[in-house]
Write a structure and sequence with these properties.
single chain, about 500 residues, alpha/beta, 7-stranded beta/alpha barrel, 2 domains, 5-stranded parallel β-sheet, 5-stranded mixed β-sheet, about 50% helix, globular
Length: about 500
């Protein structure tokens, strides 16, 4: 009889909202480029050091579309353009923009890493970060140094260890020149070209699986029918207008599949629904499009089955056999498998371990994985253990961008015989029969409901405006020029993205 295994299915979710204004062609915010340089490349390139560590990366199509734009050199982003403009040519408006925008980084780990950046930050802080008040305290060389250091701070560790010119720029610390700016601009362009190919290579060698999400990251259950919010939270205030457009949800998924096929040469087996948001209608839709698996949060499983999940003081999980197993939900198009993440352990990486010494944090996570799965493994049964979280947002809170922690974790996982790191598809294949799931209560990975995106006055106003716009689009579709029709539809799909309502309402 084969030894029982803990099959760890780690999924990193990579997402940025679509920052490009389709009317002007300008990128309103720089985060796709900056996270591309600081996080997206290094997260997958790091795995070359640990060939036995397999995992899944979820790459949202709206992120990939923007990365393609940057890689092609066709992205127009004001912050990027000003970062590489000669400081002595900056207009007053541009200098104010630099002072307002170039300190947007984690203070302890990104800004304070560079003494000169820290000096400039403290100077700005002394003027309460008020750009007009800061102006007299910043001279031309200060602007050049700030332009360069603000970009170096958002650079992956690998760029400094593998590229002598990048290392020299970081070591210089101050007194930067226009030639330094131009060098850094060329390096950024070069590095951004490498992001998508790095994921493709890792997938081709079988070390990672790439899953997808609906194209512009909409909340699929609400897109299908926003009244489903009451099933996740009874009594939640609904918008005045009923939004029900499952055809838009289908289009967002179909577009995602096509982009994945174009970039990676195959059809994705898995879909991470935006924010882990699921409903039975969404499961049927995903199955009808050929997806083999999806994933969400353990609280959705608990609500759907009535089975509680909590740990005793030793870290052993109650009902571990119910959480650490795949489920099967039957649909008219055939079954779709679902895995439910361990919320507590996922959140430890995302929100706690940044404050813990890297080796200790890695050891603690391994210990918790072993203890959590122990009740099942000691009976001779293997488990599928999902840990799922954002793959870019946590690392600026870690020293050295989290790389010491990840190296410690991957090294320990490589050496731990009781744990086998798998992609989700590998885990499903090796686990065997999935448990049947008769019903699924709608919800997301945030409090198992949709309250972040619907229910508040601002949220509901946004849904009413979206419904009004959607109706207007349908009414005026016929007779519109093809180019205008295509642009209007694209704007509508962008407007359906989750990130708008994420920022509305009392939560944020």
């Amino acid at each position: 009889m084969a030894e029982a295994k803990i099959r760890l299915a780690l999924l990193w979710h990579m997402h940025q909202p679509y920052y490009k204004d389709l009317a002007t062609g300008l990128y309103r915010l720089p985060w796709t480029r900056l996270h591309g340089l600081k996080d997206y490349y290094g997260m997958v390139a790091l795995l070359e050091e640990f060939p036995h560590v397999h995992m899944t990366f979820n790459l949202v199509p709206s992120l990939l579309l923007q990365l393609e734009d940057y890689a092609a050199g066709t992205a127009r982003e004001p912050l990027q353009e000003i970062a590489f403009q000669p400081a002595d040519e900056l207009t007053l408006e541009q200098r104010l923009f630099v002072l307002r925008s170039f300190f947007q980084a984690n203070v302890d780990n990104l800004i304070y890493r560079y003494p000169r950046y820290r000096e400039l930050y403290e100077r700005a802080k002394s003027q309460q970060f008020h750009p007009e008040r800061m102006l007299p305290f910043f001279q031309t060389q200060d602007y050049t140094d700030l332009q360069v250091l603000s970009q170096l701070a958002w650079s992956d560790e690998m760029f400094f260890t593998s590229d002598p010119e990048m290392a020299a720029l970081a070591e210089k610390q101050q007194g930067y020149t226009l030639a330094d700016q131009q060098l850094l601009q060329r390096k950024q362009a070069q590095f951004l070209k490498e992001v998508i190919p790095a994921y493709r290579r890792a997938a081709e060698r079988g070390q990672i699986e790439i899953s997808t999400s609906p194209f512009y990251h909409p909340i699929l259950p609400l897109l299908c029918d926003n009244h489903v919010a009451t099933e996740a939270h009874a009594g939640v205030a609904l918008p005045r207008r009923h939004f029900r457009h499952p055809e838009d949800a289908r289009l967002q998924l179909e577009r995602a599949v096509k982009m994945h096929q174009r970039l990676f040469g195959n059809t994705p087996q898995g879909v991470w629904p935006s924010e882990g948001s699921v409903s039975e209608e969404v499961l049927r839709l995903c199955a009808s499009l050929g997806f083999r698996w999806t994933a969400t949060d353990q609280r959705i499983l608990s609500n759907s089955t009535g089975v509680p999940f909590h740990r005793d003081p030793s870290g052993t999980l109650l009902n571990a056999d119910r959480l650490y197993a795949p489920y099967r939900f039957n649909t008219p198009s055939g079954p779709i498998h679902i895995v439910f993440r361990d919320q507590e352990l996922s959140d430890l990486i995302g929100f706690v371990y940044s404050r813990v010494e890297p080796e200790s944090a890695a050891a603690d996570l391994i210990r918790r994985i072993l203890y959590s799965a122990q009740p099942v493994v000691q009976e001779g049964r293997s488990v599928l253990f999902p840990i799922i979280l954002d793959g870019e947002n946590a690392w600026e809170h870690f020293p050295l961008n989290g790389r010491p922690f990840l190296r410690a974790l991957y090294r320990r996982l490589s050496a731990e015989p009781r744990i086998e790191c798998v992609t989700i598809s590998e885990g499903l294949q090796r686990h065997g029969e999935a448990q049947p799931l008769a019903r699924l209560v709608p919800g997301s990975w945030i409090n198992a409901n949709f309250d972040i995106w619907i229910g508040g006055p601002e949220d509901n106003q946004a849904w009413d405006l979206l419904a009004e716009t959607r109706d207007f689009f349908a009414e005026h579709l016929e007779g519109a020029p093809p180019e205008q029709r295509a642009l209007a539809q694209e704007e509508l799909l962008v407007a359906e993205g989750s990130d708008w309502c994420w920022w509305y309402g009392p939560e944020h």
